[in-house]
């Protein structure tokens, strides 16, 4: 992390420093279609700094062994690195190490909770799991703005249990209707599943208010933190959520590793999702007894190198400073909005300039399909996301089937933002849109 060594955590990031940070990311040095790469798709997956790549390689070169399974030196070293990584990530989000479950990604984390609740509803887990049992008349509540990963598992769970799935509407600017939320959250609500930051609009949802409403009615809260954990300080204990998920690949770490947070008492009461080796205490031919959390949810061989690399990514982010990253991306996000708003025929999905948002913006270009927009930008070396971003209901709410999303991260500069704005201004003329 040579480029971060001289930075003071309280100083705001500048363009000069952002350019220094870029030097830590080898992939950003390349050209695409004869142009310097402008990578504005970190909302989908982030790039990786050298220190993360090197730490994962070092594990395989020096320490590779199965964790929790051997008494030899390499196994002990691998286990220590693996559990130290858990402690690092737990501290990063303000929780205990025993409250962090390794998953493959956030989607698996949400499915883990949904299937565990389903198992409890089927009578598994005994008296301790009774609090999770769903019956007809019970409700799970989501919002109209959820990623499919925080919608489809709840559709499946309610279909299996007879509970009802309801949703909180989204306003024209992408915000949650808190008044409607207060009406929908009731004693029938067993779980509220909500995203912290929309991956389409960049809206930062009022989690504290939603948690207070849910807990007042006795409901649990699951937070999708995929677009917040990589970009801003996150204290899950202070937010008072019961479960939360996020993915490593969106926060400078490799693919294949994610995190499920759950309150310790809730994780210990939930019946397991995946079963097999490493999550048991006693096994007979007739029955098994399970370890306490988090190990009871970590069956089989774990994603050891990826977890270690995620801890390395956390170290990198902390060295830069999460407050500084948050402030820089907010500035870049506002620059994106102002630039796009000034282009005729480009419609912002979500809040307008001046409203707090994350550093991502999705747009609909009049007369040009999002895929065509993306191909034109790519011809200029600009990488963005196109499609429905795994949020079809939200796009339907805005009256479109797809959009073009630019999403910034700590390694982006104002030059990157100005490049995509300038290119977006050329799109309609290029395709002859009227």
From TrEMBL:
<feature type="domain" description="Aminotransferase class V">
    <location>
        <begin position="38"/>
        <end position="420"/>
    </location>
</feature>
<dbReference type="GO" id="GO:0006534">
    <property type="term" value="P:cysteine metabolic process"/>
</dbReference>
<dbReference type="GO" id="GO:0030170">
    <property type="term" value="F:pyridoxal phosphate binding"/>
</dbReference>
<dbReference type="InterPro" id="IPR015421">
    <property type="entry name" value="PyrdxlP-dep_Trfase_major"/>
</dbReference>
<dbReference type="InterPro" id="IPR015422">
    <property type="entry name" value="PyrdxlP-dep_Trfase_small"/>
</dbReference>
<keyword id="KW-0808">Transferase</keyword>
<comment type="similarity">
    <text>Belongs to the class-V pyridoxal-phosphate-dependent aminotransferase family. Csd subfamily.</text>
</comment>
<dbReference type="GO" id="GO:0031071">
    <property type="term" value="F:cysteine desulfurase activity"/>
</dbReference>
<dbReference type="InterPro" id="IPR010970">
    <property type="entry name" value="Cys_dSase_SufS"/>
</dbReference>
<dbReference type="Pfam" id="PF00266">
    <property type="entry name" value="Aminotran_5"/>
</dbReference>
<dbReference type="InterPro" id="IPR000192">
    <property type="entry name" value="Aminotrans_V_dom"/>
</dbReference>
<dbReference type="InterPro" id="IPR020578">
    <property type="entry name" value="Aminotrans_V_PyrdxlP_BS"/>
</dbReference>
<dbReference type="InterPro" id="IPR015424">
    <property type="entry name" value="PyrdxlP-dep_Trfase"/>
</dbReference>
<comment type="function">
    <text>Catalyzes the removal of elemental sulfur and selenium atoms from L-cysteine, L-cystine, L-selenocysteine, and L-selenocystine to produce L-alanine.</text>
</comment>
<keyword id="KW-0663">Pyridoxal phosphate</keyword>
<protein>
    <recommendedName>
        <fullName>Cysteine desulfurase</fullName>
        <ecNumber>2.8.1.7</ecNumber>
    </recommendedName>
</protein>
């Amino acid at each position: 992390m040579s480029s971060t060594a001289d930075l003071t955590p309280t100083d705001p990031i500048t363009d000069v420093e952002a350019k220094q940070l870029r030097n830590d990311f080898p992939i950003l040095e390349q050209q695409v279609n004869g142009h310097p790469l402008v990578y504005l798709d970190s909302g989908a997956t982030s790039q990786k700094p050298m220190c993360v790549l090197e730490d994962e390689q070092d594990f395989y070169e020096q320490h590779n062994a199965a964790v929790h399974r051997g008494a030899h030196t390499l196994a002990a070293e691998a286990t220590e690195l693996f559990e130290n990584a858990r402690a690092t990530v737990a501290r990063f989000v303000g929780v205990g190490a025993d409250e962090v479950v390794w998953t493959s990604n956030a989607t698996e984390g949400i499915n883990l909770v949904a299937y565990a609740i389903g198992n409890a509803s089927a009578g598994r887990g005994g008296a301790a799991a009774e609090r999770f049992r769903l019956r007809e008349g019970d409700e799970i509540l989501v919002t109209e703005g959820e990623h499919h990963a925080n919608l489809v598992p709840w559709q499946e769970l309610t279909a299996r249990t007879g509970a009802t799935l309801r949703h909180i509407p989204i306003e024209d600017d992408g915000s949650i209707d808190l008044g409607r939320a207060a009406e929908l959250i009731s004693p029938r609500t067993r779980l509220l599943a909500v995203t912290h930051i929309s991956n389409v609009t960049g809206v930062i949802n009022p989690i504290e208010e939603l948690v207070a409403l849910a807990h007042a009615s006795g409901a649990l809260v699951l937070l999708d933190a995929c677009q917040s954990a990589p970009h801003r300080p996150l204290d899950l204990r202070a937010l008072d959520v019961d479960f939360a998920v996020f993915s490593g690949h969106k926060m400078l770490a490799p693919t294949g590793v994610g995190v499920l947070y759950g309150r310790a008492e809730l994780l210990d009461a939930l019946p397991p999702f995946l079963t097999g080796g490493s999550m048991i205490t006693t096994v007979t031919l007739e029955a098994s007894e399970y370890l306490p959390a988090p190990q009871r949810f970590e069956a089989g061989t774990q994603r050891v190198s990826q977890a270690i690399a995620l801890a390395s990514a956390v170290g990198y982010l902390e060295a830069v400073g999460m407050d500084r990253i948050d402030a820089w991306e907010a500035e870049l996000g506002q620059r994106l909005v102002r630039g796009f708003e000034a282009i005729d025929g480009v419609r912002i999905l979500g809040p307008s300039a001046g409203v707090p948002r994350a550093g991502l913006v999705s747009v609909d270009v009049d007369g040009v399909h999002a895929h065509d927009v993306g191909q034109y930008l790519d011809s200029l070396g600009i990488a963005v996301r196109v499609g429905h971003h795994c949020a079809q209901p939200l796009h339907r709410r805005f009256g479109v089937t797809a959009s073009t999303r630019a999403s910034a991260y700590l390694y982006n500069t104002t030059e990157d933002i100005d490049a995509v704005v300038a290119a977006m201004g050329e799109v309609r003329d290029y395709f002859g849109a009227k």
